[in-house]
Amino acid sequence: MEREPITYRHSDSKAFHKIVMPGLEKVANLVLKRGKFESDIEFNDWYDEVMDDRATTRRDVVIRLMNEKHNPVAAWKATRCFPLKVTAPDLKSDANEIAVESVELAHEGLTHIDI
């Protein structure tokens, strides 16, 4: 997240400098990655829903950072998300790698939440 600065100077200000105030917040898209499992096509279904009707398929998404014991350490909530891009795993027949898929989400804000 990033906040754009607003620079402003009153026309009758006796100080010979501008005032800097916090402006609008800019948010970058989220890219989430996970291992691919059999019959797990939720990202693809959501992506298809967005193509039909953008207004009703937005979701709030909670992202949890887990430690080695799978206990949550931190959490964030992204509001009014929708998928922009779903990337399938590389399917190499000569490699012995975990299949990882990714989804890029547009959102309207990211906040830290208590766990």
Task: Tell me about this structure.
By secondary structure, the chain is mostly beta strands. It is built from one helix and seven strands. Strands 3, 4, 5, 6 and 7 form a five-stranded antiparallel β-sheet that branches. It has a two-stranded antiparallel sheet with strand order 1-2. The radius of gyration is 21 Å and the shape is elongated. The two termini are 21 Å apart. The model has no long low-confidence stretch (mean pLDDT 85).
Brief write-up:
This protein is mainly beta and 115 residues long.
Keywords:
two-stranded antiparallel sheet; elongated; 115 residues; 5-stranded antiparallel β-sheet; mainly beta
Percentage of residues in DSSP E strands: over 45%
User: Main β-sheet, in a few words?
Assistant: 5 strands, antiparallel
* Mean pLDDT, all residues: 85
- The SSE string, one letter per element, is EEEHEEEE
DSSP strand count = 7
Would you spell out the secondary-structure blueprint of this structure?
Blueprint: E1 2-8, E2 19-26, E3 30-35, H1 42-52, E4 59-66, E5 72-87, E6 100-106, E7 110-113
